[in-house]
């Protein structure tokens, strides 16, 4: 569903991503760990076609992202650390707008259904997003993914700054999307969530994927040890 082949990105002499090979299948949640500056956001931005590779390629559903960016964007939803929503519009209006941009038209009842599925409390649907907590904004992001029927989810530190309850709710939503066979790539600093929520973890260091494991084959404490080893 998501694939990077010999993917490299340089900024002048600075190597941000180096010879990355990665494949994420439907129903997998791949958590990308790594220190600040390791190359996680660059990898996600390459999948989004925000930037173009220096070498290699990324594809979504077998379609080359750099060659057919509009086609690949149809299949994905993206939730960054701070989701850009229109502050003066309600959650419901934002959802109608962003799903409309993706070419989808829904009745009000259907839109409310997506917000409910994403766990946004009914009382908030018609409130301005300005008043939302970060967790509520992230739920609108999930509702947009549901409305788009996105098969691919790209997440860049989506739970950073969320309190444990909101972070737990977000993790449950990811599990739900996993059951619907969504393929997820998530950059995160949260080792605990990566192990709990992910099906796979990768550790990036200086642009390279230095570890790639399933979460079943490692326990929390060994994952932490491995991570810290790569920080030295
Ligand atoms: N536009 C840019 N111009 C120059 N260098 C860049 C640019 N974007 C990223 N870099 C560099 O590329 C490297 C990888 O950055 P990236 O943002 O992908 O790391 P990250 O793993 O997401 O870090 P963080 O955990 O802090 O978000 C860093 O050394 C960064 O300084």
UniProtKB/TrEMBL annotation:
Organism lineage string: Bacteria, Pseudomonadati, Bacteroidota, Cytophagia, Cytophagales
Keyword Nucleotide-binding, does the record have it?
A: yes
User: What Pfam families does its record include?
Assistant: ABC_tran
Q: Which domain of life is it from?
A: Bacteria
InterPro entries listed in its UniProt record: AAA+_ATPase, ABC_transporter-like_ATP-bd, ABC_transporter-like_CS, ABC_Transporter_VariousFunc, P-loop_NTPase
Q: What is this protein called?
A: ABC transporter, ATP-binding protein
Q: SMART domains in the record, alphabetically?
A: AAA
Q: Please report the stretch or stretches of sequence annotated as the ABC transporter domain.
A: 2-231
Keywords from the named record: ATP-binding, Nucleotide-binding, Transport
Gene Ontology molecular function terms on file: ATP binding; ATP hydrolysis activity
